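Q: Could you fold this chain for me?
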Amino acid sequence: MVQFTKAVTFAVLAAGALGHPGGNVRDEFEKREQHLNNPKRRTLADCHSALERRGHQDLMVERRKARVNDIRARKGLEPRPYLRARDLATIGLTPVEQPESEIFGRQSNCILDPEQTEGPYWVTGELVRSDLLDGEPGVTIDLDINVIDVNSCSPVEGVYAELWGANSTGVYTGVVASGNGDGSASEINNNRLRGIQPTDAEGTATFKSVVPGHYVGRTNHLHTIIHNDATMLPNNTIQGGKITHVGQFYFEQSLLQQVEDISPYSTNDQEWMQNSADMLYQQSSSNGDSAIVEIVLVGDTLADGVYGYIDVGINPSASYSPQPVNMWTDDGGIPVPGSMWQGYPWEESGGMPPGGFPGWPGAKRAEAKREQKLEA
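A: Sure. Below is the predicted structure, expressed as structure tokens.
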């Protein structure tokens, strides 16, 4: 079992502040650390041998290969060798062909511990749909989220996976905040790049979105929430049940470097934080787990889009209570009364959430904005 270093301890404490402003972060961290370092703790990695014995990994290899071939056919692309994102440097040269089991069968782990913050831009009540684009530009990603029960080591059918992320220039739809693009008031009635999908018999939920852009203080990432025992409503939303996972997905830096050079990503003038400097990214791999999406190229260039997959381990008996800032309705977005995220990034209070936490990433940005106003 991997123990936490002092640097990781600091990062997790800070990440706890992100998720629970006003709470006793140190007590929460200490309990989490004890759980993560418990030799009896089961993780998704513990399940891989069992899944392989049952033939699940072989099934996933064939499924993922078929997904890429189907995407290529729909785009009118000819068959070609399969390349992972880490093979980007070989494009234009003679690619080194690798076994399909290596490309499509990698154990991509997003363990249920430690949970990560839902962030200030979660909008509840989103639609059940697979295609989240609605014309949004960017490098398209066809993403498979594979949900595994870490207790039974079995795929979980019938849970709902929720996915959302920033657009190519680092703006979240569905929210209005000065720290979110230009803070346009019309953004609250936009729900692009947000949606929910049920998992199938193989535990897989499928989405089409874009590789997210970056914004100040964070590396590029996607958010996910797993809903257990929810009910589908006639208006194509879900209700009830409980939340058993709150997490974030990341991408290899080499892929992001290529993506950020493509328009409209290249028009984003916000400061770009690399994976190595992002404390929540560091937290996601602090005990040997990984929240990096495995990426396979669809064509010869990123303009053709990418296919991605990641395994998410959940404990069906767990229950979390993330906080949405807004709710999506038939009439667009509306604020959630009493949400702790209202007013983010809390510039009038020094960039700190209710309850303080001077280390909040928005504090420095808020102070700079106040100084600019004074100079003006």
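A (continued): The two ends are 54 Å apart (CA to CA).
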